[in-house]
Specification:
The complex is a heterodimer of chains A (554) and B (332).
Chain A lengths: L23 H5 L4 H29 L10 H36 L8 H25 L11 H4 L4 H28 L12 H33 L12 H35 L6 H14 L15 H13 L1 H15 L8 H24 L1 H7 L3 H31 L5 H27 L14 H31 L41 E4 L4 E4 L7
Helix pairs in contact in A: 2-3, 2-4, 2-16, 3-4, 3-6, 3-7, 3-8, 3-14, 4-6, 6-7, 7-8, 7-9, 8-11, 8-12, 8-14, 9-11, 11-12, 12-14, 12-15, 14-15, 15-16
Chain B lengths: L1 H13 L14 H34 L16 H30 L6 E8 L2 E5 L5 E2 L2 E4 L3 E8 L4 E5 L4 E5 L5 E6 L4 E7 L12 E6 L3 H10 L7 H11 L25 E3 L5 E3 L2 H9 L22 H13 L8
Parallel strand pairs in B: 1-5, 4-10
Antiparallel strand pairs in B: 1-2, 2-3, 5-8, 6-7, 6-9, 9-10, 11-12
Helix pairs in contact in B: 2-3, 5-7
Classes of the chains: A mainly alpha (554), B alpha+beta (332).
């Protein structure tokens, strides 16, 4: 193994991407995808903290049926801020922009994304959009919920326009990131990496990018129409001006339903990597997993009407949307079975990233299965706009996307920072997150099916027990997150140096040092089968996995 | 905690005797059908969940990494197996879709001869108007008879929701949305507003009162003459409760969404535009019919107009009620 700096070998080099260029300015003007990924990571984690604090404040208010410590308007602003920040600032850019930016070019064995300047630009757009969104929600007392339903968003005195403008700008940030990844995955694949020998994470990112580019413009159009109606009084959504408020819901969900798959597809990509790596088994049924991603990306555009079963749309329309909604359950089920089959006869290591992968099966399983209740027309009429929907949404988004994000963060953390975190602390914190999450949201299923509507500041006495248990769960989760923040920050200072390949994965990012040099690879590596682990063995001296044949080490 | 809360929680979650797990009481003809589909999906979901998590736990134990254990090569795919676990879920969701759709069609088709009641939703109250012209803030219906609701909204979207009936329908301004139900059990049930509508959304509650056979007609004819049997101030108080005043205006002195009515009449009030006005008969009348014309300082302009919805006689009753809340005004 060569010791010379920057050969893309497995020994850490002195001049890695973190040390290449010093000072804050070198970060703010960087074109390095890894640094942009880190910038995104810092930003979205800040957004997560902000959204999380508001979630805790909401749960605290809901400890008692009446007023606990804030008034109704403040509560309404809190759930608006929680929703808008978590959706637009955290989950949508979470895995693609933060993790994806760091990992995608490395997985491709490329030096960077196809358009590095556009990449940096979309980060600045994110900052601008985030500033608009957060500042106007806080100063303008926006209380519409993250869905901005008309005509409420027309008549409320709050400053809806600037918030909407913020979401509009964030949409462009998302489109540019998607465009960048599309071109990158098409043009920068290394020799040997065909479409069916590509790590499934890249497939997830690719499907997401297609949806970002196709769906997000509709959000932009909708939001612009909203602005035009509010400022110059063109009647589109407002019945007083001859518009139709339900039209807004169609527009909004035409984007926002694909958007939930924008959030979940990359998460599924992460899962495929984790299940295979930590079972030391080739991923089972690559093609079915790959095609199910394509199916999800297509079908997700055709199900938006299931948000409007009670709105007064025709029974025929509802029937069609119900049928299409059920069809989207199939590809998700296929993936779950294939991940299970991947574990079969494997050698399963319960390290922190794998714990999150297993938790994903549990929570996303519940999230997916409860979708069956909501897809069934007769049952949805009862459950629509109740806490059952809130719980279902959080089981898919938090139990799916966020749990996968945590798995991804732990999995790629050594690669990003060059440091190992404490495995013991990782498992300990996981326990709090997992138990807290289920306590918080499972109780909401029951409150909802018993009839508690969502977005309720007051609630009738019979729902008190569910709300109190839910709040208790949210505090447990908060403890878990502070523990995670604690040991990850500690690892930056005191953590042992990470080997190039701590988990024994075989995709290309593990074939360069941790952290990688700024140019990633000296020469474009040749890609093999990313799920073939036969060439890797544990090396005590290295503290990680090394290649037996020496292939792929520079 | 455990004895008082956790155990009842699981008992309640599991459902009382005869009820579906997690579902509220049944009081309409829809409830049985909806709960049957709910039970079906619950059964299928539990089966799959136990299967998936069971296999997961089994694999974790069976194939955990340990000294002397290596992962064994297995085929990287198996098309027949994968087709099977694609087709079986497809058939199952097809079945669920069918039963969900069948139940929905029952809800979508209003039977002929249903008793029709008009519903007006506004922030943050309900008005139910009966065929004889009586307007009430609670929904009174006869048992065992289909009731059709023709609903519209004065301002933003609301949602009519009765958990015990398994009925929900959005109420959209600018159009009429209809729904129907047939109550099967006399009693009182909660009405919730299900679509977020602002400050008082979670206070936009009411009750359905299901009358026993024969009682409904009796109630309706009495209700129509109700105001004639009261003093004007009592009638005003009844209107205050029934027409949505109380959602925003208290009579105990606390300011809510609008100013309190207590001790209000005859006093001087500062308006948002800086002017001052005396709270007298004409001020109250104008506030009811054209509320946006004079907004009290410190409050938002959110009150809907009652033009065409209250008679002059009713306005007089409300004024008398307000007077009674301030004996010092000397007008009593």
């Amino acid at each position: 193994m060569s010791e010379s700096a920057g050969d893309g070998g497995t020994t850490a080099v002195a001049d890695n991407y973190l040390t290449h260029g010093k000072g804050i300015l070198s970060w703010l003007t960087t074109l390095d995808h890894k640094r942009i990924g880190i910038l995104y990571l810092i930003c979205i984690l800040s957004a997560f903290l902000l959204g999380g604090i508001f979630a805790l404040l909401m749960r605290t208010e809901l400890l008692t049926p009446g007023r606990t410590f804030v008034d109704a308007d403040t509560y309404n602003q809190m759930f608006t801020l929680h929703g808008a920040v978590m959706i637009f600032l955290f989950i949508i850019p979470g895995i693609p922009a933060a993790i994806g930016n760091f990992v995608v070019p490395l997985m491709l064995g490329a030096k960077d994304v196809a358009f590095p300047r556009l990449n940096l630009f979309s980060w600045y757009l994110w900052l601008l959009g985030a500033a608009f969104l957060v500042v106007s929600i806080i100063t303008g007392a926006v209380d519409t919920g993250w869905t901005f339903y008309t005509p409420y968003s027309m008549v409320t005195s709050a400053s809806v326009i600037t918030v909407v403008l913020g979401a509009f700008i964030l949409g462009f940030s998302s489109i540019f990131t998607g465009l960048n990844f599309l071109v990158t995955i098409h043009r920068l694949r290394p020799p040997g990496m065909t479409w069916f020998r590509m790590p499934l994470f890249l497939r997830g990112i690719y499907g997401t990018a297609v949806m970002q580019v196709l769906a997000t413009p509709v959000l932009g159009i909708t939001l612009l129409l909203l602005v035009m109606e509010r400022t110059i009084g063109i009647g589109i959504f407002d019945p007083n001006l001859g518009g139709d408020p339900v039209l807004f819901q169609h527009f909004f969900w035409f984007y926002s339903h694909p958007a939930v798959y924008i959030m979940i597809l990359p998460a599924m990509g992460v899962m495929s990597e984790l299940f295979s790596t930590f079972s030391r088994k080739h991923i089972f049924g690559y093609r079915f997993i790959a095609y199910s991603s394509v199916a999800i990306a297509i079908l997700s555009f055709l199900v938006w009407g299931h948000h409007m079963f009670t709105s007064g749309q025709s029974a025929l329309t509802s029937m069609v949307f119900s049928a299409l909604t059920f069809s989207v359950a199939i590809p998700s089920a296929i993936k779950v079975f294939n991940w299970l089959a991947t574990m079969y006869k494997g050698s399963i290591r319960l390290l922190t990233p794998m714990l999150y992968a297993l938790a994903f099966l549990f929570t996303f399983g519940i999230g997916g299965l409860t979708g069956l209740f909501l897809g069934a027309l007769a049952v949805d009429i009862h459950l629509h706009d109740t806490y059952f929907v809130v719980a279902h949404f959080h089981y898919t988004m938090f139990g799916g996307a966020v749990i996968a994000f945590l798995g991804a963060l732990h999995y790629w953390w050594p690669k990003m920072t060059g440091r190992m975190y404490s495995e013991k602390s990782g498992r300990f914190a996981f326990f709090f997150v997992f138990v807290g999450f289920n306590l918080t949201f499972f109780t909401q299923f029951v409150a909802g099916s018993k009839g508690m509507p969502r977005r309720y500041y007051h609630y009738v006495e019979e729902f008190a027990i569910y709300n109190q248990l839910s709040s208790l769960g949210s505090y447990l989760m908060a403890i878990g997150f502070f523990l995670i923040a604690g040991y990850l920050i500690r690892s930056l200072i005191k953590g042992p140096k990470a080997p190039a390949n701590p988990w024994g994965s075989n995709s290309l990012e593990w074939h360069t040092t941790s952290p990688p040099p700024w140019y990633n690879f000296k020469e474009t590596p040749e890609a093999g089968d990313p799920y073939d682990y036969s060439d890797l063995r544990w090396d005590d001296e290295e503290g990680g996995y090394v290649s037996i044949s020496g292939r792929g080490n520079g | 905690m455990l004895m008082n809360h956790i155990i009842p929680f699981f008992l309640a979650a599991a459902g009382d005797a005869g009820l579906s797990p997690g579902m509220p009481v049944r009081a309409s003809t829809f409830a049985t059908g909806v709960d049957w589909v709910w039970d079906l999906i619950l059964g299928i979901s539990l089966l799959f969940f136990v299967l998936i998590i069971g296999l997961m736990i089994l694999f974790i134990f069976q194939y955990r990494a340990r000294e002397g254990h290596e992962s064994a090569p297995t085929p990287s795919h198996n098309t027949r197996l994968e087709v099977i676990w694609t087709v079986i879920p497809t058939i199952i969701v097809g079945i669920i879709f069918f039963f969900g759709f069948r139940g929905y069609m029952d809800m979508a088709v209003v039977p002929r001869g249903a008793y029709s009641i008009n519903v007006l939703a506004q922030r943050w109250s309900w008005q139910f108007q009966y065929p004889n012209g009586h307007v009430d803030n609670e929904l009174h219906v006869p048992v065992d008879r289909p009731v059709k609701l023709v609903m519209t909204s004065d301002d933003v979207i609301h949602g009519f929701y009765v958990p015990a009936f398994r009925v929900k329908r959005d109420i959209v301004p600018g159009r009429y949305n209809t729904t129907w139900f047939e109550a099967t059990e006399p009693g009182e049930y909660d009405i919730f507003c299900a679509e977020y509508c602002g400050t008082g959304h979670s206070d936009m509650l009411s009750k359905v009162i299901v009358h026993k056979k024969g009682d409904f007609e009796k109630w309706l004819s009495e209700a129509a003459d109700l105001l004639g049997t009261m003093t004007p101030a009592e009638a005003g108080e009844w209107l205050y409760n029934a027409r949505g005043c109380k959602q925003c205006h208290t009579i105990d002195g606390a300011a809510r969404i609008g100013p309190t009515f207590k001790g209000d009449f005859g006093t001087e009030r500062a308006l948002k535009d800086g002017s001052k006005v005396t709270v007298d008969e004409n001020y109250i009348r104008r506030s009811i019919l054209d509320p946006q014309s004079q907004i009290a300082a410190g409050f938002e302009p959110v009150m809907p107009t009652y033009k065409g919805r209250v008679t002059d006689e009713e306005i007089t009753m409300i004024i008398e009620f307000l007077k009674s809340l301030n004996p010092e005004s000397g007008d009593q």
